[in-house]
Amino acid sequence: MNKMKVTMRSFSSLQSLTSISANFFASKKSKLSPGDVLIFNLILHLSYLTLGIELWSAILCL
């Protein structure tokens, strides 16, 4: 049960970060600069890293 809560929280966090990033880039209405793409990729990679860490911690706590 605890593992399920952690998994759902992780996916919710990932969805929130992705949504924030998408809204930021949609609001720019201009061409994205290479720096913007780098920031977007960094946010996504950190989100997936966080998700992986939370899932592993849930598995190890069983």
What's the quick description here?
Keywords: Membrane, Transmembrane, Transmembrane helix. This protein is mostly helical.
Descriptive keywords:
elongated, membrane, transmembrane helix, transmembrane, 62 residues, mainly alpha, 2 helices
* Assembly type: single chain
**Gyration radius, in Å:** 15 Å
Question: Gap between N and C termini, in Å?
Answer: 10 Å
The SSE string, one letter per element, is HH
Q: What is the mean predicted local confidence, pLDDT?
A: 72
Task: Report the β-strand fraction as a percent range.
Answer: under 5%
- Let me know the largest β-sheet: none
Count of alpha/pi helices: 2
Secondary structure: helix percent:
over 70%
Shape: elongated
Provide the low-confidence segments as ranges: none
What does this protein structure show overall?
The structure is a single chain. The chain has 62 residues and is mainly α. It has a domain at 1-6 and 34-62. The protein is 87% helix and 0% strand. Helix 1 runs antiparallel to helix 2 (34-60). The model has no long low-confidence stretch (mean pLDDT 72).
Topology:
Elements: H1 2-28, H2 34-60
Helix pairs in contact: 1-2
